[in-house]
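Reference record
================
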Amino acid sequence: MARSKSSKRWLDEHVNDPFVKQAQLDGYRSRASYKLLEINDKDRLIHPNALVLDLGSAPGGWSQVSAKLVGHNGRVVASDILPMDAIAGVEFIQGDFTEQMVFDQIMATLNGNLADVVISDMSPNISGVAVADQAASMYLLELALDMASQVLKPKGSFVAKVFHGEGYDDYIKAVRGLFEKVVIRKPDSSRSRSREVYLVAKGFKG
């Protein structure tokens, strides 16, 4: 079957993407790893010995980065609806974290400990209908923020992928109500034509 022009353009862009090539060299599972690395370089969120919760973790690019940053004495707990191959130093729970059974599993794995950082690179399955896709994205973001508010320790941090569009301003306002400092980042490894940006919130008010 002949590829559409858009899928061919995406494939050409992907094959020639320097971050895709670098991820292969560095052993990362996705180019998204560099987004978290760049954010962490600027904002110093994940430190040795930290406890990190990675929501929507598959295929594992952010979990890989987090595991390296927290070191042997830190912990990374990851969850996704999709399966994810094992990563050294990462405790993975498959399932929808909004379902009680999966939520309970995550809480049991945390074992009464509160997270230093909650990270989320989640995106909805894209339908191509802009309004529906934006609504689905904002819904995931609300779920991630709700989860963060339940598991973060005071002064903890939250990082999430956000798309400009309907609901964006209200969401930023809601996050500002829960954290002392909120900034928006557009990492170099994020494609310029993408509407995605990364919200970085520090100083959870608890």
About this structure: Residues 130-151 form the longest helix (22 residues). The radius of gyration is 17 Å.
